Amino acid sequence: MGASDELSLVFQALADPTRRAIITRLREGAATVGELAEPFAMSRPAISQHLRVLERAGLIERTANAQWRTCTLRTEPLDEASAWVERHRIEWNERFDRLDARLREMKGDRRVRDERD
């Protein structure tokens, strides 16, 4: 079934373009469920399902005020995901640099052998 650790839940939530669009909208400020649903050609229950995924990942907070349900962006999980990506990006770049250096060495060795032959 689905992963349950926090980082997996964040990446799972971000995997969907509708949820990313909702997060982008919430960067402007809190919004009601109706306001979030407006730009999408989908049912309210479908939007609510997307909001549940975002809430489970800790990316949004939903509050009820009378009949209005308001959603607010929580950036902490995004910060943690960004930090994870950055740490790994540095490691991957170092590995690519080592691979590139090794390939250049091998290419240089081949030239030396070709000149001897």
Q: Would you write up a description of this structure?
A:
The protein is mainly alpha-helical. The protein folds into two domains: 6-74, Arc Repressor Mutant, subunit A; 75-117. It contains five helices and three strands; from the N terminus they run ααβααββα. It has helices spanning 6-14, 17-26, 33-37, 44-56, 76-116, and strands spanning 31-32, 60-65, 68-73. Strands 1-3-2 form a three-stranded antiparallel β-sheet. The longest helix has 41 residues, at 76-116.
Annotation keywords:
3 strands; Arc Repressor Mutant, subunit A; elongated; 3-stranded antiparallel β-sheet; mainly alpha; 117 residues; 5 helices; 2 domains
Helix content: 55-70%
Cα distance spanning the termini: 59 Å
Tell me the β content. 5-15%
Please give the number of β-strands. Answer: 3
Write the SSE topology.
Blueprint: H1 6-14, H2 17-26, E1 31-32, H3 33-37, H4 44-56, E2 60-65, E3 68-73, H5 76-116
Antiparallel strand pairs: 1-3, 2-3
Quick overview of this protein structure:
The protein is mainly alpha-helical and 117 residues long.
